[in-house]
Amino acid sequence: MAREKMQILVCGGTTCSDGQGEAVFENLNLEIEANALENDVHVVHSGCFGLCSMGPVVKIVPGNTIYTKVSPDDAREIVSEHILKGRKVERLLWKDPSGNTLVKEDEFAGQKKQLRIVLRNCGIIDPENIEDAIAHDAYAALGKVLAGMKPTDVIQVIKDSGLRGRGGGGFSTGLKWKIAYKNKADQKYVVCNADEGDPGAFMDRSVLEGDPHSVLEAMAICGYSIEAGKGLIYIRAEYPLAVARLRTAIAQAKEYGLLGKNIMGSGFDFDIEIRYGAGAFVCGEETALIHSMEGLRGEPTVKPPYPAESGFLGKPTNVNNVETLACISPIILKGASWFAGIGTERSKGTKVFALAGKINNVGLIEVPMGTTLREVIYEIGGGIRKGKKFKAAQTGGPSGGCLTEKHLDIPIDFDNLTAVGSMMGSGGLIVMDEDDCMVQVAKFFLEFTVEESCGKCAPCRIGNKRLHELLEHITKGKGTLADLDRLKNMCLVIKDTSLCGLGQSSPNPVLSTLENFRDEYEAHVTLKKCPAGQCKDLMEYFIIEENCVGCTACARVCPVGAITGERKEPHHINPDICIKCGACMEKCKFDAIIIQ
Amino acid sequence: MNAVKSPEELKSIKAGILKRMNEKETVRVKVHMGTSGLASGAREIYDFFRLELEKRNIQASVTSTGDMGYSFAEPTMEVKRPGEDPVVFGNVDKLRADEIIEKYIKNGELVDGVLPANYRTINQ
Q1: Are the C-beta atoms of residues B82 and B26 closer than 8 Å to each other?
Q2: Which of A68, A158, A296, B110 has a 20 to 30 Å separation from B86 between CA atoms?
């Protein structure tokens, strides 16, 4: 009798669960063969289920049964019970936190950590085909707004939803719109800030590439609400694909009468144009962005006046980030209370994070506000690469700070991150493991701000340069304890006296690493050692005599001839000649070379 | 295309598109072609599916979309067999693409590299 075809998906493989997934996979295959089921049942590797603490995970289709914490020894029972007799293996079924057994994936869905609002259509629709977008509810919210909502109604909905700006500051979007609405003028502007500058963050790019209509629609809704007739998208020229897809989307929307004159017969006119940026970090700051669009130098000016009073060409202007705009349509369609029901007390909705660094599943994730760092890193991110130990995660890019092990369980939202000395920023999340030197990390981010400082105000232009020099000093082993105090003092002065957000936040990585990893800084200045073994000037390669067999491999690979020794005798490294390139350590097969 | 004249008309256009999509349901292949996908070779995979599905006489639509955020497994793609839930595959090279056509598209047999949907959508 022909059996129904079944498939067994096994997650993991070599990266998570200490490779147990692979053993489960092999044992399942052996059992399938032993029962001569090769033709009816297939075992395949799958990606991460986002349940890493419960791994290895096995899923059986049809039926979508999920088994968790499967050990290699469980393979026999799964095959003999579930596959052959159709009886579920109760003890392995996935349970929710309150202990209820969950059998199917539909039930399991509610337990998933990720919720996609901003990324709802990314990878789902063809961004170059407006029909596909319309089929997925594009412009439905604009229709609803034009069909019978007053501008003030729309603003009230956005305000009630609790949506806060996703670009970094976290200012209430509804309030921002309200201020722009109240300032009367013959022309107003809606600006979409697509000048995504944080190193490692690319959610805005993904939204523009995957779902450009969501942004166009939201801009039109904003235009209607604040009574603006013109929208401008400020996007960096380094995003050619996003630019191309935006252009296509704008042209298609105009063709369909969803942008342009008399949209959907409502009498409301709204047009969108693209403005290009050259990729300067400071142009993500709204006043600098507006200057850049006007053809002036991309330099910030003192607020007030806020752009809502006097922005582009001196007219009231509302600037919103891409991710913020991508939230608008679902809020209009599903209501303010739906959105306000997601997230924490003061931070509503979801946040997209770009996971980067020493984490297994690098990429974009979207989670409700209030998800903990532990869930993000260990459940969704698949844990730290190569099973190393978590050390810190940098949030908010070069303007943020680092979160350490003691912060793993705080719910991530705007206020909690600020309280622990970091910030939400645009959502870049760079994970560092035990091998990363925190002084080097601080130096790396400062290097970025030094390069990106526009030079207008002295604290930022000169102060950051001096900070960078001090850090350089410390990593070279020339620092003193007094330097650490000087470092901190200078940071505080720069924060207090800089003109714009860039300077005011640029010392954050230094302050936060100094606060959380002071012992590491002290090791650099007092012991002249780098605990993570990253600062080249502070390390010394050393050969352990007992392990060295005298194979001469290291001496041959050394580019400067710093290694000497007779064949079959322990070798030695001359520290005065050694350039610390590490070639010998890589070559040694006997673990005889270590860093001290 | 004539301009949409009212929000009501937009709704009927949407309904029309959905009806058309559901009427002629074939295998739907979506290759995720955002910057991360393209940088890892999604274009080649897209061309491969276009060419090979036609060569092998399989009725299917092949479209390109943006990325889903699975940077660790690019290039990624989605296959939806008629009446079934879509399945996303990661780390797709030509070898795996061939396997996807022969095993999954033809027989519904899964192959290595399935990426489970570990997220909820706004409609759930």
Answers
A1: yes
A2: A68
Question: Could you tell me what percent of chain B has a pLDDT over 90?
Answer: 75
Residue B124 with chain A: CB contacts under 8 Å: 109-110
Residue type, A535: C
pLDDT at B123 over 80: no
Distant-in-sequence, close-in-space partners of A429: CB < 8 Å, separation ≥ 6 = A200, A353, A354, A355, A356, A376, A393, A394, A395
- Angle, in degrees to the nearest 10, between helices A508-516 and A481-497: 140
Average pLDDT, chain B: 92
Phi, psi of A553 (to 5 degrees): -60, -40
Distance CA A139, CA A137 (A): 6
**Nearest chain A alpha carbon to B115:** A47
* pLDDT score, position A1: 37
Nearest CB partner across the interface for A147, out of B7, B36, B88: B7
In 3D space, the residue among B3, B4, B68 whose CA is nearest the CA of residue B33 turns out to be B68
Whether the CA torsion A353, A359, A362, A365 is positive or negative: it is: negative
Q: Which of residues 211-240 of A touch B (CB under 8 A)?
A: 211, 239
Q: What is the mean pLDDT of each run of 10 residues along chain A (596 residues)?
A: 71 62 87 87 81 79 82 89 86 74 57 88 93 94 95 97 90 96 96 91 94 97 96 95 96 96 95 93 92 93 91 96 96 96 94 93 93 90 87 90 93 92 89 94 93 92 95 92 95 94 91 94 92 85 90 92 91 89 89 85
Does the distance separating the beta carbons of A206 and B66 come in below 8 Å? yes
Neighbours of A476 (CB within 10 A): 14
Let me know the angle formed at the C-alpha of B85 by B82 and B88, rounded to the nearest 5 degrees: 110
Measuring CA to CA, how many Å separate A562 from each of A39, A594, B24, B38? 61, 15, 72, 45
Count how many pairs of residues, chain A against chain B, have C-beta atoms within 8 Å: 191
Phi, psi of A548 (to 5 degrees): -75, 130
CATH number of B25-115: 3.40.30.10
Contact B71, B22 (CB under 8 A): no
User: Phi-psi region for residue A579, left (φ > 0), alpha (ψ -120 to 50) or beta?
Assistant: alpha
Beta-bridged to residue A353, according to DSSP, are: A365
Q: Which residues pair with A430 in a beta bridge?
A: A356, A394
Question: What is the tally of helices (H) and strands (E) in chain A?
Answer: 24, 20
CB contact under 8 A, A363 and B70: yes
pLDDT digits (tens, 9 = 90+) for B24-47: 788 999 999 999 999 999 999 999
Nearest CA in chain B to A252: B1
- How large is the average pLDDT for residues B13-34? 91
Question: What pLDDT is recorded for position A2?
Answer: 42
> Is B113 in contact with A127 (Cβ distance < 8 A)?
no
Q: What is the pLDDT of residue A40?
A: 85
Strand order in the sheet with A363-368: A363-368, A350-357, A428-433, A390-395, A401-404
Q: What is the set of domains in chain A, with CATH numbers?
A: 6-109 (3.40.30.10), 138-335 (3.40.50.11540), 350-433 (3.10.20.600), 438-527 (1.20.1440.230), 540-595 (3.30.70.20)
Q: Do the Cβ atoms of B116 and A364 come within 8 Å?
A: no
Pick the residue from chain A with its C-alpha nearest to B63.
A126
Domain ranges of chain B: 25-115
* CA gap A256, B46 in Å, rounded: 28
Residues 42-71 of B with CB under 8 A from A: 63-71
